[in-house]
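Researcher: Quick one. two chains, 665 residues in total.
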Amino acid sequence: MDDNVVIKLTGLTKRYGYGDTTSYALQNFDLEVKRGEFIMIMGPSGCGKTTLLNIIGLLDRATDGEYYLNGEDVSDISSARQARLRARKIGFVFQDFNLIQNLTVIENVALPLVYVNRPRTVRLKDASAALRRFHLSEREYYRPSQLSGGQQQRVAIARAIVSDPEIILADEPTGNLDSRSSSIVMEELKAIHEEGNTIIMVTHNPSLTVYATRVINMLDGQIDTDVKTVADHNLPQPISVKVKKRRGRKAKEEE
Amino acid sequence: MSMLFRTHLRLARASVRQNRTRSFLTCLGIAIGIGSIILILSLTGSISSLIKGEVKDIGADLVVVRPTRVKDTVTSFIEELTMANTFERSSLSLVDVATISSVGGVTATAPIAVSTNTLRNEENTIPSATVIGTTPDFNTIEPLALKYGVFLNDKNTETAVVIGHNLALNLYKSSNPVGRTLTFYGERFIIVGVLDEVDEAIINFDNVNFNNALFMDIDMMEKLMGTIQIQQINVRVLNTSLLEPVAGKISDSLKETRFGDTNFSVSYGDAISHPASNLLNTISWILAIVAGISLVVGGVGVMNIMLVSVSERTHEIGIRKAVGASAYNILMQFMFEALILSVLGSILGMMLGYFAAFIVSTITPFSPYISWEIVAITLIATVSVCIIFGTYPALKAARKKPIDSLRHYL
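Model:
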């Protein structure tokens, strides 16, 4: 398999209910996501966007089909392993921010690091660095409720990237924001993407597709249209991958 | 691992602090249970340490022989607890006293026969005074502080008696009636000595209140009353190192003269205080069980609050799981919360218990008694309460599905 493929889904099916009440959120869904892609998933309500995101994010399990994350089959792993992968490989951004209200902003951002066993000082340092990136340094010891919606969503994005995940999953991150905050948030996501991060985002807003490198339209649990706006070889790559590639090329030239 | 441990501890502390009133009330439930256990244990502990202290004061070279009955059924055990010793015929007799005093290594033998009788003099009648039949040896084994006069001795056995402080006041309206007379079973006796006042609340190992007692010669007592009840025989041994062999010898020779009958007990050292407080022990055990029940009620309170806390924080659990918390992490988070509640409760309970014991000690002569056993028992009780009542809510939290929890708002 191409080592640039982060996610590979084959024949993914999610069924709800039994007998007469059976309904499919996903039906024979196939998808391949390359490193550095910024995918926007669009479609009407109930077409399975969020279910897809939850399965990719290892919060939910498919009824059928296979899911490869970094070449590893993760369709039938234990829930403890799922949790470990969530902590290390996946960052979530939600529509309603999902920050813990009784923790301070910096503690919220540091939360994923708790579950990868980082010492407290390291956690706070990393979280502080992530917040600085989103110009929220002065808000470190605020409570989430003391921030505006846009600021809260930026805190949530800081939390998503703090543990350096492979993929960032965003479920309508601008859904609860006004247009100004929403464009700030999108600019931040774009900046993260340009650093070589893979982002999968669900949205209802067609005007946001300008940020994407690939737009997928879903209908009834299947892909309706799939448009790539940027060629695969032009996708931004993380520094580590670039270094690896350059070394490989050099080695070839020397041969 | 230890890092996660500290994180859990910090989290739990924060959560307990957030709901101060609720946490305090939950702790109070535990505290009442632990507090009553502490109170009961420290009081019974202080009583038995008082008795032990008394044994130590008298000397460690003491052997006590007591009558026993065959304990074959639960009913006979209950009977023994509920009926006063005087109701039944003692299995010890004056023959046994003679047997014991002939054993080598024994320096003094004092039987204690107790009976409740009417005493009168010219002016007053005491309907229920404690009459103790003993021998002059009693004073050498257990030196009594005499306020006036002398104790019984070999020359005055026929007519002399010694009385306690309160009895003297009640009979003669005087603290010094030495030389005056009283009538017992139609015989006239001369008072040769009066005891100093003893602290009434102290339960001594003889099980008799000396303040209201009259001491007389045991042979004279038997002659007058026909039968006597020997409650116990106190024996002084030559020296402490002989304690064990002499106790064995006493036991053997008693068995021999009684044709194999073993309805008696020979005890020395700390064991002396135990049979005396048999009823006390049983009562304190029953009380401890009641206190244990209140601890269980406190535990149910912890469980209740933990369940509320889990359902209140379903959304938070969802977020934590989404960012990488495993079921085990969540389980531990809530277990630590239960542990903190239980530990805080038990600390509060220890303080409450000792405070209550202190209050009791100002009214009674018992001093609060703290031992490592009591602390260990409370610690074990606390941890088991936490484990028994914290596990279910914590498991419930750990098993929540992340997407369902994320959708859960309050």
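Chain A has one domain: 5-254.
Researcher: Thanks, that's what I needed.
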